[in-house]
Amino acid sequence: MTMNLEAAGLRQTPAQHDFDTARLNAWMQNHIAGFAGPIEVRQFAGGQSNPTFLVQSPAHRYVLRRKPPGKLLPSAHAVDREFRVLAALKDSPVPVARVHALCEDPEVIGSAFYVMDYVEGRIFWDAMLPETEPQERRGIYMEMVRVLAALHSVDYNAVGLSDYGKPGQYVERQVARWTQQYRASATEKIDAMERLIEWLPQHIPSDEQTSIVHGDFRLDNTIFHPTEARILAVLDWELSTLGHPLVDLAYYCLRFHLPVAEFRGLGGVDAASHLIPSEAESVAEYCRLRDIAPVAQQDWTYYLAFCMFRLTGILQGVLARALQGNASSATALQAGRRARPLAELGWNLVQQSFDV
Q1: Cα–Cα distance measured from residue 96 to residue 222, given in angstroms and rounded to the nearest whole number
Q2: Which of 10, 96, 101, 253 has its CA 20 to 30 A from that of 199?
Q3: How many other CB atoms are found less than 10 A from the CB of residue 91?
Q4: Domain that holds residue 188
Q5: Are residues 111 and 196 located together in one domain of the fold?
């Protein structure tokens, strides 16, 4: 079984992420039902956090997600949590890849990892969806909203995730966590980030809700059917937890505020002319699907600014790993440099909506 590596977004595994495939082969033989080697391993070019690999046997394709090598921030790169939430959601309305096994023994390939099925389909990297027919674009974006609403409607107690996070005070805890993560990986002072760190804890909305949240729900973290506007699998659950669903929704809607050039967003784009639902349409459809009241405007602004703050913290970590030489993606340095403009965008949003 052969594959076009470039078309699939694959590359030869770089030296800093290489590992003993014979040891992996032996482990898979002992832990995955129906597995038979030999295997060929290639790394996916995308992704900034947990290195991800295609593992190809003569009869099956698997995906391996591992913690990166090197010194890591506390609680980051939790592949065990990814494995747990994927296993919990396997029979839910949320489409996910089938997981096979988790390995927490670093002796096998050098760090913890899990193995899941490879899902064949389309991944869209450009928010404008230039490779699709115009009439399909609305369906793709509305499918994103549908799946996010479905995730937030899952009864986390019923699927065994009652202890997957702490119900309540999610935003407060997240502000504290990402302030700490940002401080631990800071490479320069970003004035806008300092202002967000001071302002966010003092203006947390009073509305408390709890659901399973993905934490990084965006277009390129989903695999669509090859010919239909239907999601086959949601990827990259590293930041998932129990949290506030409107934060997840705001993160999904960041694309409407992020500029095209730096973030592949839709900021400044007339979405309607491209048959892409607007931010207001997306939020209204989400509220309809979940049968909840419209979101108060200042609350919505807060959640957007918070998401920009959190993403700045993530990108700062990417930059720090790139400077240390152990980032999972070759484009990590470029991605990390976006931390400053993103923080400035978040603070500008606050200034436009609040008296600061």
Answers
A1: 9
A2: 253
A3: 7
A4: 134-353
A5: no
Distances (CA, A) of 211 to 248, 256, 320: 10, 24, 31
Residue 76, pLDDT > 60, answer no
Work out the pLDDT band at 262, boundaries 50, 70, 90: confident
209, 196 in Cβ contact below 8 A? no
Task: List all residues 6 or more positions away from 233 whose beta carbon is below 8 Å from its beta carbon.
Answer: 95, 96, 97, 119, 121, 222, 223
**Which residues have C-beta within 8 Å of that of residue 92, sequence separation ≥ 6?**
150, 154, 159
Q: What are phi and psi of 42, to 5 degrees?
A: -135, 150
pLDDT digits (tens, 9 = 90+) for 301-340: 999 999 999 999 988 887 777 776 765 555 666 666 788 8
- On the CB side of 27, CA atoms within 13 Å amount to 22
Say yes or no to pLDDT of 2 above 50: no
How far apart are the C-alpha atoms of 275 and 135, rounded to whole Å?
7
Would strands 40-44 and 211-213 be described as parallel, antiparallel, or unpaired? unpaired
Alpha helices (runs of H) in 200-255, residue ranges in sequence order: 245-252
Write the single-letter amino acid at 318.
V
CB 332 within 8 A of CB 319: yes
The tens digit of pLDDT for each residue in 52-62 reads 999 999 999 99
At 7-40, the pLDDT tens digits run 457 766 655 667 889 999 999 999 999 999 899 9
What confidence score (pLDDT) does residue 322 get?
Answer: 72
Question: What is the domain-level CATH number for residue 60?
Answer: 3.30.200.20
As a whole number of angstroms, the distance between CA 212 and CA 214 comes to: 7
Q: Are residues 93 and 211 in the same domain?
A: no
The C-alpha atoms of residue 299 and residue 62 are separated, in whole angstroms, by 41
The verdict on 145 and 105 lying in the same domain is no
141 forms bridges with which residues in the sheet? none
Tell whether 141 and 105 lie within a shared domain.
no
